[in-house]
Design goal:
1235 residues, alpha+beta, 8-stranded antiparallel beta sheet, 7-stranded antiparallel beta sheet, 29 helices
Length: 1235
């Protein structure tokens, strides 16, 4: 019997096994196999496979190289030993993080040195390979530092120019490259991607730079944390200097504390180069982390199991007014629509916190007492009900101004809760909080130790205070508007910034702190590690904040688990415990030694975010626990005992800011992160944690064990300009973060103007999927395409990252490029395609900005080589991918030039009419030639030659009007209730629309008996169609053309076919074709490896393209009975390919006997057939399973029940109901397709 990992018949011509772990094994008695002996000739193939991280035939993971068995597959994400947990790990609930790099061998070892190119530093320059210059004109202060972990990289140290210093800028050199991508901080908490060509275009606070060199290779430059004390960043040369004239990049090293100095900065910057960008980045970033803070690579970490289930977060629903009853309402509301969340995040609002004593009363205490002197209300000064009335008026007035302040700005972050508490705008979903509820949260201490507050009063006795609040609120609103439109857009160092800094840190400091205390949570401090009274029972409401009841968080969590089947519950807290730390006045937390510190922002931080100068932590100070290890241990022990699964740890970069008073940011962050990582490892099994607001290398390089991190700034429901840049930031920041942590693309709102594109992005990102919908505010049509009925999700296997042709393109501003994000499922690849043009983070305005409201429609090609796993294994098989892409780019450039000439001639001709006015635009680098795209039914353009082949869509499999071929019996829909050959018209089938355009080399022709015909050993027929039913066009090459793809004497499996006694010459080496499904158009294509499928998208839209290698299975003792098959997945899900867990085939003898015991009833064999083939699929979820199938099946069974199917052309659709697995407690179903 063949191994399950062996994914092709030995008699197949498709020698590159089109499979991932467990895909497509052909299982049958060894005595009946029709195989040729397989022998390995040399170590060349093994070297290629080891470079790919796959096992060569007969090597580790191979069943056998015996002549009765086929060769080992090479097309897999990683070694099966890595991708599938061991029995012991399964029993312990351990899931290892998947890892991909070109050199990964499936172990926890670092990527092999072979992925790197030689790189050297000498004579003030860094060169790559045979002398290609990366940097020159470097500072003489640079020194080469030797380190065993970086033997194939350049590690530089820096000598200070004038003695010991806390900050120094060094000339790192002029950068020589075609283009670069960088990730640089744009706020205290976050970073964004930027693109450019020279050092002058670099933004400050750059932490990661990837350069594309002139020979097509790549280099990365990573500033490090030197000696655990000095943080490095890249920045542009200062204007007006000699370095600026020569475009010399600057390296800044700083401790953040004026008292922490050095005259020599050891291990300051790391440089590396390679041919494969993702492998290079993994190798370099993991080395940088080892040198800078000890973060282990993601491939060595345990991923928490909540990643595979649907989640809900409380923040955008309730903000700090979250309560136990709100949790239940939200979970029940989502479950009612068939999308039950099995993971809940209790965000900010559950802790006991309070502002400092001076800011607990309304600002005009004497005026308040005068207004109340004749009223018999009896409250003491500072009564919570009075303050609540005042705050409600203040917030209502501020809410009007907040609508004009984008949530993604510094002021917008302060006003986010107030804006959300007002009536929703046209494109907003309502939140679960209002001004009254929010005012109560800010008016009343959430500390249990102070006992119950005064009960809520009617607004009438406090109407004057409400009016006073309105007056003060309108005054504050005027200041807010002035700040937003005058101060915030001003450059650092200009008079508006300097004036506002002077006022807020001097005469108006008290007023600013009162504003923060009234309107935000940012000056509040932790008073107890336990929950507040809003979590005193499962039915507690926001009003219970004033009840004084003792918390019972365990009862709340138990209710969620038992009543709603929630598996995982997280709680939010800060790295400093709360926004402004731990209260020095609270007895409950005094044992942790809290001490108030007044931080000072670094010059670089002030440059990118001048508002840091009047940050609440700067003005009011942050109280840091001296015994932070005890604080985290006590808090996490309490949470764990209450049934909490893990924590979301926020405001991490703020600890680095406070480091200015604690020996420097890097040192302070190291202490906090060490304590955090230790506590999480002790109290939360399965590594349940999310790092957030953490985009400083002080944090990134200290994620020792935690494996998940937010990839971008928040999803702001009310900031329309932020919705598209959010996705770009997640994708490109993930390039830097993914070697160390799985990027979390944040929650989103399903009932929202941007819900569709965000849902599509979550489907391909490979990270968690969770929303923040308010109860009753859902778009279930969106959610059901992400969430299965049991609350699980179809998560892709790897971190989603931009394709190579997207890496160096500004997908938000160039007006020409679609973003493509690649990922892998268990049995195929996916590419998410997104039109993000028109909005971006504007560093000059310091806000998200819509710079092009036209949002042009764009077009790009999606190729199998866009999926990096496919690309590298195709290269290992001898395919010249780089040559093919170069030829395609040349053809595109030639076509663009010709098009420009034609348009010029048309403009010169006054008699000719306007032409191509509605033509789609698209990136020439992504499109390839457009000529064939616009002419249906013509051969796709190919560029054959020694440099490879070039690209366009091959065949599209679907309905076509007025095309007739073959008999009527093959275009049918089969159902258990109907006759076996009931004819169904194409318009009623589940295939693509009847007006679909076919691209390729021409129509396939069916044989007269409906059986496939054969040409050159490849099937060129179809099952036939009737009247206006099915049309299939083909782009498959003849075997002679295929043989040119491989190296002489080398096949993808790593061996050579020999002639043997069974006669005949060996089949030519070849790679598989791919079935490609475009979700937006529901079109199914067949393409060869060097072709692409055009995808067109309007502005701010996205789609998922699924790519599956086509396997060929031989059965029946004749090649005419061969089946070509590829499972696409559930077409009703965004990442439908994730529903297919495994595929394998099995032969049945005429008497129906089988050599495999599946544990389920298989359909009986057809006694008239000499041999049958069963294709087994393991499927998660329900809906319509789409597959490429060259033959029409006899029947289809799900868990032993016969189900309906449609077969049109070569498009197979099988209805997969959840007939038994859900009730049996299984998440997977067994689908058997009989041929």
């Amino acid at each position: 019997m063949l191994s399950q990992r062996q994914s092709f018949s030995a008699s197949s011509r498709y020698l590159l096994a089109p499979s991932l772990p467990r895909l497509g094994a052909l299982r049958q008695p060894a005595s009946t196999l029709h195989t040729r002996p397989f022998r390995r000739r040399s170590g060349v193939a093994d070297a290629l496979l080891k470079k790919m991280g796959a096992s060569p035939p007969g090597g580790r993971g191979s069943r056998s190289s015996d002549s009765s068995k086929a060769s080992e597959t090479v097309l897999e994400i990683q070694d099966e030993q890595q991708s599938q947990p061991s029995q012991q790990q399964q029993q312990e609930g351990v899931t290892k993080a998947p890892s991909f790099s070109a050199a990964s061998n499936g172990s926890s070892a670092a990527p092999a040195a072979s992925v790197l190119l030689p790189i050297a530093f000498a004579g003030g320059a860094v060169t790559v390979g045979d002398g290609l210059v990366l940097l020159d004109r470097m500072s003489p202060q640079a020194r080469v530092q030797q380190h065993t972990a970086t033997s194939d990289m350049v590690l530089l140290s820096m000598a200070a120019s004038n003695g010991a210093t806390a900050l120094e800028d060094f000339s790192l050199g002029a950068l020589h490259c075609k283009s670069w991508l960088c990730c640089a901080r744009n706020k205290l908490w976050w970073m964004t991607p930027e693109w450019g060509k020279t050092a002058r275009e670099l933004p400050p606070e750059c932490q990661f730079l990837l350069a594309e060199l002139k020979d097509g290779s790549y280099a990365t430059i990573l500033p490090l944390i030197s000696q655990q004390k000095f943080r490095g960043t890249l920045r542009p040369p200062k204007k007006g200097t000699r370095d600026h004239a020569r475009a010399v990049m600057t390296l800044r090293l700083e401790s953040g504390d004026d008292t922490v100095k050095s005259d020599y900065f050891e291990d300051a910057v790391l440089l590396a180069a390679g041919r494969e960008p993702y492998a290079l980045i993994e190798a370099a970033v993991t080395a940088a982390a080892a040198l800078s803070g000890g973060a282990r690579p993601l491939r060595d970490k345990q991923l928490p199991p909540n990643l595979d289930v649907f989640g809900w977060c409380s923040w955008d629903s309730f903000y700090s007014a979250v309560s136990a009853s709100g949790l239940s309402d939200a979970v029940q509301s989502l479950a009612s629509g068939g999308t039950p969340p099995r993971w809940v995040v209790i965000d900010d609002g559950w802790q006991c916190t309070e502002v400092d004593e001076p800011y607990r009363n309304i600002p005009t205490e004497q005026l308040k007492q005068k207004m109340l002197k004749d009223r018999n209300v009896g409250e003491k000064p500072g009564d919570a009900a009075q303050r609540e009335a005042y705050l409600e008026g203040e917030m209502e007035a501020l809410g009007q101004a907040a609508r004009d302040v984008p949530a993604g700005t510094a002021m917008g972050a302060y006003l986010q809760e107030i804006r959300a508490s007002g009536p929703p705008e046209d494109d907003e979903a309502p939140s679960g909080v209002d001004y009254h509820s929010l005012a109560r949260q800010h008016a009343i201490s959430s500390s249990v130790e102070e006992g119950p507050a005064s009960p809520a009063k009617a607004k009438a006795p406090y109407r004057p205070l409400y009016i006073v609040g309105l007056i003060f609120g309108f005054f504050q609103a005027f200041i807010v508007i002035f700040y937003q439109w005058v101060v915030d857009p001003a450059e650092h160092g200009t008079w508006p910034v300097n004036l506002f800094t002077y006022l807020t840190t001097g005469p108006l400091k008290g007023s600013m702190l009162q504003f923060f205390a009234d309107s935000t949570n940012f000056t509040r401090r932790l008073t107890d590690v336990k929950a507040n009274s809003k979590f005193s029972s499962p039915y507690a409401t926001p009003d219970d904040i004033s009840s004084g009841r003792r918390e019972d968080l365990k009862a709340v969590v138990d209710h969620l688990r038992n009543r709603f089947n929630v598996d995982y519950v997280y709680c939010w807290h800060g790295l400093s415990a709360y926004w402004s730390g731990v209260s020095p006045d609270s007895a409950a937390v005094s044992k942790y030694g809290p001490k108030l510190h007044f931080p000072k922002p670094t010059p670089g931080l002030s440059e990118i975010e001048p508002s840091t100068a009047w940050n609440p932590g700067i003005l009011g100070g942050v109280s840091i626990a001296n015994h932070v290890d005890e604080l985290f241990s006590d808090m996490h022990a309490y949470l764990s005992a209450a049934g909490i699964s893990g924590v979301k740890v926020d405001c991490q970069a703020g600890v680095g800011l406070v480091g200015s008073a604690l020996g420097g940011g890097p040192a302070a962050a190291l202490k906090a992160h060490s304590a955090l990582e230790d506590s999480i490892a002790t109290h939360f099994k399965d590594n349940h944690a999310i790092n957030c607001m953490c985009h400083s290398t002080e944090n990134i390089y200290r994620w020792r064990d935690t494996a998940v991190a937010r990839a971008s700034d928040d999803f702001y429901p009310t900031d329309r300009a932020s919705h598209i840049p959010h996705l770009a930031a997640c994708a490109f920041n993930g390039v830097f973060l993914s070697p160390l942590a799985l990027p979390d693309w944040d929650m989103f709102s399903s009932r929202h103007v941007a819900a569709e594109i965000h849902a599509t992005a979550r489907a391909v990102c490979g990270g968690p999927v969770y929303v923040s919908d308010a109860p009753g505010s859902h778009a279930f049509d969106v959610l059901r395409r992400l969430v299965l009925p049991d609350g699980s999700i179809l998560r892709a296997k790897l971190p989603g990252r931009p394709t190579r042709d997207s890496l160096f393109r500004d997908v938000m501003r160039d007006g020409d490029t679609l973003l493509k994000i690649w990922n892998m499922n268990a049995t195929g690849g996916i590419v998410g395609v997104f039109n993000l043009q028109g909005a971006s983070w504007d560093r000059s305005r310091r806000r998200f900005h819509i710079h092009d409201s036209t949002k042009p429609e764009l077009e790009a090609l999606v190729r199998p080589t866009d999926v990096e796993v496919f690309r590298q294994q195709l290269e290992a098989a001898g395919c010249d991918v780089a040559g093919m892409l170069a030829a395609a780019a040349a053809a595109a450039a030639a076509e663009a030039a010709a098009g420009a000439q034609r348009e010029a001639k048309l403009r010169q001709s006054s008699s000719s009419s306007s032409s191509n006015s509605g033509a789609k635009r698209g990136s020439a680098a992504q499109r390839g030639s457009e000529q064939s795209l616009r002419v249906p039914l013509l051969a796709a353009t190919r560029v054959d030659g020694s440099s490879g082949s070039g690209s366009l869509a091959g065949s599209m499999l679907g309905s076509m009007d007025a095309v007739s071929s073959g008999s009527a019996d093959d275009d049918t829909a089969s159902s258990p209730a109907g006759p076996p050959s009931a004819s169904v018209p194409a318009s009623a089938s589940t295939s693509t629309a009847s007006t679909a355009t076919a691209l390729g080399n021409g129509a396939r022709r069916g044989s007269s008996n409906g059986q496939p015909s054969s040409s050159n050993g490849n099937r060129n027929g179809s099952n036939g169609s009737s009247g206006t039913s099915s049309f299939v066009s083909s782009s498959r090459a003849s075997s002679s053309r295929r043989s040119a793809v491989s190296m002489p004497g080398l096949v993808a499996g790593g061996g050579v076919w020999d002639e043997d006694e069974e006669g005949g010459g060996a089949p030519s080496a070849a790679v598989p074709d791919f079935a490609v499904y475009v979700g937006a158009t529901e079109e199914l294509h067949r393409v060869s490896w060097d072709q692409g499928v055009p995808v067109s998208l309007e502005g701010w839209q996205g789609t998922v393209v699924t790519l599956a290698p086509i396997s060929r299975f031989e059965y029946g003792g004749s090649s005419s009975h061969g089946l070509e098959f590829a499972a696409i997945g559930l077409s009703n899900m965004l990442n439908g390919g994730g529903a297919v867990c495994s595929v394998h085939a099995e032969r049945l003898s005429p008497d129906g006997s089988t050599t495999q015991d599946t544990g389920r009833d298989d359909p009986p064999a057809d006694p008239q057939s000499p041999e049958q083939l069963l294709v087994h699929l393991t499927v998660r979820g329900r809906g319509t399973l789409l597959a490429y199938s060259s033959r029409r099946p006899q029947s289809c069974f799900v868990d032993g029940f016969e189900v309906a199917f449609h077969h049109v052309g070569e498009r197979l659709s099988v209805e997969v109901p959840q007939v038994g697995s859900l009730h049996a407690g299984r998440s997977e179903q067994a689908l058997v397709i009989s041929y």
